[in-house]
Amino acid sequence: MQENLKKIQNQALQEIDQCKDLKSLQDIEVKYLGRKSELTELMHKLKDLSPEEKKVIGPLSNEVKTYIIKKIETTRGALEAQEIEKQLNSELFDITAPGTKYDLGHIHPLSQIQYEVEKIFSDMGFAVMDGPEVESEYYNFEGLNIPGDHPARDMQDTFFVKDKMSDRHGRLVLRTHTSPVQVRTMEKYGAPLRVIVPGRVFRYEATDASHDTTFYQVEGLLIDKNISLAHLKGVMAEFLSRLFGKEVKVRFRPGYFPFVEPGIELDFSCLICNEKGCSVCKRTGWVEFMGAGMVHPNVLKSGGIDPKEYQGWAFGFGLTRLVMMRYGIDDIRLLQSGDLRFLQQF
Ligand code: PHE
């Protein structure tokens, strides 16, 4: 038996040494240590041996078994390392070869400027608000001092939605300006207030290079005690100077909007020609920028604010026009075209 054990050990050793891959090592393991292996069978028979024989054969068979287990384990480790290296070598790639270039998306020019505008106004203490694009007639018109029969409704050609909301709120419309959010914000937060509202607006309009049915505005609203248009002039000069990165002047002209009194139009000094006159400013040195004015007492009342206690100003400018001016885009329709040749320039 002793000899038999030695023979098993030597044979196993030889086979393991010659083994070249993990699969055959597994087979060897089964062959020499498995349930049906010679060694296992031999160990089963130990119980039939005489006590003297047991003393010798017992420990010896254990030694042989441990020896084979250890040998298999070290060989397995070495074979595994070999296999990993083989794999790495076969997958080796040329790190100097040029890779595949994937196009990265980027923010639309309109959103880029919108974020800049939001940042500047936030830094000046304004909160950024939002409102629905499908609006009630009430918020879009009546609440802003534009009654149903008022000729001012013709100033903004409207897309009406079929559904009627209620008697008080009238039909649904695609909002023609961001001004309805003035009343919504006053109702929700009361006075004092300092907000801007960037958003998408819609007008029933024939499209051409400077008109589109869909464009973007930014509304501004400031309500507090002892507020005057001088504050508006200061805020807008500061805002435009920060946006364009150089000093910009602003001027007021009278203008009419039913929801402000007095109403004004605000122009800023032409940055292209430094007020000398060019094609951008139509030779005037000034660029028409936005409508504004002191919030009409009726609008304050719509928002639940007492006009005797508080006053304020509001403004609305075209974000789309600002983008066109900033980048010298001469056709408004490009901005919503989704044309990548256009968009990839920004
Ligand atoms: N809502 C006006 C427009 O769309 C702009 C405006 C806003 C004018 C606020 C005055 C005050 O033309």
Verbal overview:
The chain has helices at residues 2-18, 22-33, 38-44, 51-91, 109-123, 137-140, 180-189, 229-244, 297-302, 319-327, 340-343; strands spanning 127-128, 134-136, 160-166, 170-174, 193-202, 214-224, 250-254, 260-269, 286-295, 311-318. It has 346 residues and is of the alpha+beta class. It folds into two domains: 2-90; 109-343, Bira Bifunctional Protein, Domain 2 (BirA Bifunctional Protein, domain 2, 2-Layer Sandwich). Strands 1-5-6-10-9-8-7 form a seven-stranded mixed β-sheet. Strands 2-4-3 form a three-stranded antiparallel β-sheet. A hairpin with a 5-residue loop joins strand 7 (250-254) and strand 8. The longest helix is centred in the first third of the chain and has 41 residues, at 51-91. The N and C termini lie far apart (87 Å). Bound molecules: phenylalanine (PHE). Phenylalanine is lined by residues 177, 179, 257, 260, 291-293, 314-316.
